[in-house]
Write a structure and sequence with these properties.
Layout: E1 2-7, H1 17-21, E2 27-29, E3 41-43, H2 54-58, E4 64-69
Antiparallel strand pairs: 1-4, 2-3
Length: 81
């Protein structure tokens, strides 16, 4: 299984709780505003994410989601057609 880390830019109000809570310093506040005029959180260092979900747990706006994605095995052509 692999994981996907998503920040809903439109829900995020840029409070920074997730940024402070992240043990791996993955998150930062964006330089770009969202539709509501806030600077939402973003993954500044996504490769450092260990998918601990502390950011999602701490987010008061429920703007962060971490979910498992089933790995897709490559398909092999057996039989020639």
């Amino acid at each position: 299984m692999t994981h996907e880390h998503l920040v809903n830019r439109d829900k995020c109000k840029g409070c920074g709780v997730c940024v402070e809570a992240c043990p791996k310093n993955v998150l930062a506040l964006s330089e770009d505003v969202n539709a509501k005029g806030y600077f939402p959180a973003k993954q500044a260092r996504p490769d450092d994410c260990v998918f601990c979900a502390i950011c999602a747990t701490m987010c008061p706006d429920v703007a962060i989601t971490i979910r498992e994605i089933a790995d897709q095995a490559p398909t092999e052509n057996k039989g020639g057609k």
